[in-house]
Protein-export membrane protein SecF (Actinokineospora globicatena), 416 residues
Amino acid sequence: MSTNETPATPHLSATGDLTGAGKRSVFDRLYTGTGAFDIVGKRKRWYLIFGLLMLVCLGSVIFRGFNLGIDFEGGTKISMPAVSASGEISTERVTEVFSKTLNAEPSAVQKVGAGTNSTIQIKSESLSVAQVTSLKQALFTELKPQSPTGESSAAQISDSAVSGTWGGEISRQALIALIVFLVLVTIFLALYFEKWMAVGALAALVHDVIFTAGVYSIVGFEVTPATVIGFLTILGFSLYDTVVVFDKVKENTRGLLGLTRRTYAEAANLAVNQTLMRSINTSLIALLPVIGLLVVGVWLLGVGTLQDLALVQLAGMLAGVLSSIYLATPILVDLKMTEPKFKEQAKRVELRRANAARRQEAVADLDLDDPDAVDAEVRRERAYAVATSVPARTPKATDARRGAKPAGKPTGKKRR
């Protein structure tokens, strides 16, 4: 090892881990970030897991599809107060009246809000004017809804026709925004970092998009305009966490080709470990408001818009954190290792470690009481120094190992 390569961690092993790291607690290893977790080294395992996950999500999107809301497919929406003189009106009772009146099932019946201001929203396929009039009269006759002021009349039940054209326009604009975003992100990453980092970040971003879409398809969440808005917001979060990790990778690999301490994969794995605690803390802090939206919006207020927004952000943020740690950096390492210069640097690292291991074995087996053995060891060290440009031990150090005083030039005048 050349003299300008001072070890940053004296007990760093060949894989970039600390010797004895397994004896320390998980939280200690997370906090110190010294490469104790071999994330990049196990990248084939992560590829398999994420690959299977992507196949499931893509299969659900292709064969199962999405539960599109009324804003995308078009239809009729009816709104009425959720309270009557006899108490709250249940969604089951509304569904029963709808089915009995029109001999059909509504697309969705949900309660929005809480207390006297709560309402029930009915979404169905497009209804004719006669069907809407008949349904409103049946709902008033059967359920007697009344306003917060106590007024009870058929006028308290409102209806509106929704065209699917509006939802389609939203989808088209969202797709345009996504394409523009990806193009700008690619240009930025390629200029600020490098091309392979841009490819790794985009691969992680595509994973987040497919995962979030697959969750909505598998679970059957209703896709609304709020879902599309939340879908676009998760892209920035995913990219932010990836950029933080890549910035540390760039710092750790600066001037790496001239060194033989670590390979590119080990330096990248150290960067992931150094930013791992930050990624966890950032994701937890970001998820707390989202969970708050989910709890308040769904269980307390029953607001469908907040539910759609919170669910897409929850799924997208979780996917973003996992992909930035387990997917983006491993992909970057595999792409970098296709370059010959990094392959050669990895071979030099392996050669230095193999030579160091052989030297340690030779020293351990050396009999210091045998002068011939010591001389042979000195010759081996000098040959190694010539081959690897590492200074060998001086004769002074060799004499010290034998237990003799070093030979030096005579000082003073010769006695007569």
The two ends are 51 Å apart (CA to CA). The domain at 30-67+169-332 is CATH 1.20.1640.10 (Multidrug efflux transporter AcrB transmembrane fold).
